[in-house]
Structure formats: structure tokens, C-alpha cells
Amino acid sequence: MNCILTRYLCSTVYTSWFFAPEAGRWRLIASFSRPNINTYLTRFHGFLENFDPGQGYFSRQAEWANQWVYLAGGSWNEVTEFKFSVDATAANKQRLDCTGGEENGHFFLKNGGFFNNVIASNILFTKPATGISPTIDFNSLP
Fold it and tell me: Do the domain assignments include residue 74?
């Protein structure tokens, strides 16, 4: 956490990395500063969007597996739960081809393509824990 003491403002910097097996190293996804707050991450979200309505007939799917959070106390916490929710487009029933869940130990989100196997919003999914936390040398990250 970074604090600007001269202005009495604090900000929290959130940073996320992923391991790129093709490169054999960790890569930065994003890092951002949330101003006027001094706290640790309390919850996070995954999403799947289509920014081009002209491509709504294409189906797309994202999967999340082996997710871990490094806690302030120095320990790893495995992500084994996810709550499926929808945006205003799905909530207003403008597009109903969105779903999510758990398959083969992975969480997934899927949208587009005009499919019918949708689920209700706000369902909690769980997956089995792998128990294999990452090994990361934080000092070697750029």
C-alpha cells in the first residue's frame, strides 16, 4: 500500500500476474491504484465480454483453473468458489445466451452464439481444491 502522507491520502495498489507456460515465466496482467482507500483486496471478479455487437453470433468461453491469492500474512489461499452473476443486458433479458459453472475442476463463463442451456444468476459454484500452491520468487518479478 502506498500512502501520500503530505496530502493525507492513501491508495491501495492491486496487481495481478499469470504464468505463461509458452514463455516459461510470470507475466503482468494489470496493476492499478485505488485512491482514497487503505485496505487489502476483499473480493475479485472474472468476466467475459463482447465489445462488438456485430459478433454476437460467435460463442466465446473463458476458463479459470488453479487460481490462488497471496494473503498479506504471507500464505496462499486457493480459490475454490465462484458466484455466477450477469450484467444488465442479461438481467433485462435482452440476451439470454450466457452461462457459467464448473467443469473438470475449472470454472467457466460462456456467452454469445444463441445457445439455450443458460442458468439463473447468483448461483454459487465450487470446485475441488488441488492443494498445490504456486512457487513464485516475488523479487524476480519486474
Answer: yes
